[in-house]
Amino acid sequence: MKKHLVLTFIFFAACVMASAAQQAPAQQNASAQQQQNAPQGNAANGRKLFVSFGCYQCHGYEAQGGSAGARLAPRPIPYAQLLKYVRHPTGEMPPFTEKVVKDSELTDIYAFLRAQPPAPDVDKIPLLKQ
After folding, report:
1. Are 108 and 43 in contact, with CB atoms under 8 Å apart?
2. Strand, helix or coil at 124?
3. pLDDT tens-digit profile of 57-89?
4. How confident is the model at residue 8 (pLDDT cuts 50, 70, 90)?
5. What is the structure's pLDDT at 36?
């Protein structure tokens, strides 16, 4: 009985892993498609707006995240989700209505988030090799 239960569990786990492996590329393709469908903005202006609206206070100057705010870059969530969350946040973040931050300004901020380079690999940081 115990052996049968273990084999059943292993079979179930294998099925779940196989299903997840098949779904992962589809989810990545959907995310890439959403990123491509995002409106184009001005990253330089987005950086200025990110600071002027005070986003940096919680999310850091490079949108890397901080003690009070999540990491937003270098791979931001899809634009539609960001827009929805900024307008109606669920956590500690205050809502930023269209009167406060226009959609065009959010588009520029999103361009700034997308323009952030990924962090370098640990192996490529000379100071850490010492």
Report:
1. yes
2. helix
3. 999 999 999 989 999 999 999 999 999 999 999
4. very low
5. 63
If you ran DSSP here, which 8-state letter would residue 88 be given?
Answer: S
CA distance 71 to 44: 19
Determine the structural domain holding residue 49 and report its residue range: 43-115
Residue 120 lies in a domain: no
Q: Where are the alpha helices (DSSP H) in the chain?
A: 2-36, 43-52, 56-59, 79-87, 103-115, 126-129
Question: What is the identity of the amino acid at 6?
Answer: V
* pTM: predicted TM-score of the whole model, two decimal places: 0.70
Residue 17 lies in a domain: no
CATH of the domain at 65: 1.10.760.10
C-alpha dist (Å) from residue 98 to 83, 84, 87 = 10, 11, 8
